[in-house]
Amino acid sequence: MNRAEPRPRTASWSETEAWERVVNLICEGSFPHCCAMVIPGDLQGEAAVATAKLLLCESRRGGDGCGSCASWTEQGHPDLLACGEPMKPPAIAECRGVIQAAAYRPVVSDGRVVVVYSADRMLLPAANSLLKLAEEPPDGVRLLLMVEDEELLLPTLRSRSWVISLPSHREDEGLTPPRTPHEWARWIEDNSASEVDSLAGILSSWASWEARRGDFERAAVLERLRLVIQAKRLSRTMALDLIVLVLKEGFVFEHSFGDLW
Ligand SMILES: [Zn+2]
Q: Which residue has better confidence, 76 or 252?
């Protein structure tokens, strides 16, 4: 049997209508001052940079060799201020740093772009510190809040943002482990009545997916988990709870196995 190779998860967001709208708005000069972009954590870096490349370009088209486009290096751009990292939200000190920097005149472009990664996972003080910037950014400053789950973004920040979803359609959806709290909630709901054997089958397909993408450690965890729920004859509720505990909550598996069962 020939198994289809998983498609790379990249590229898909930039083929959506939502992205086309982003490009058009930037081109027309009507891109909002504060935008929350909904996109999986591992794609936030490339989406933020792609947006900043258009926003910072003199012609708003990006990659046209203008003075601003020529200033991009591997490290970024002098007028791109970023805080946090994809999958790692910024702390309040980092937020304060970019807020301060955003008040200065741009270096080469006619404006600046502030990117906040994992903005939906910030602690309350960090999120609060960005309210003023979101409400009244200095002239020429655009704020991009990168989020996986817009529902988790501080409501006062969300209400100040134009929210755009850049979904990443994946052909292998269903064969890959859920990643966002939303995906987990849906997965748990879908599987609340699944038998242990079918849960084991799911774990097995997740394990092969992780192995194919080179994460053998994760694949091994999934395989061990599958063996335990099958060998220990757990009830389906216990099996489901254990899967969520280990994979979603990050409970260390060796301990859960020794201590609980
Ligand atoms: Zn340019």
A: 76
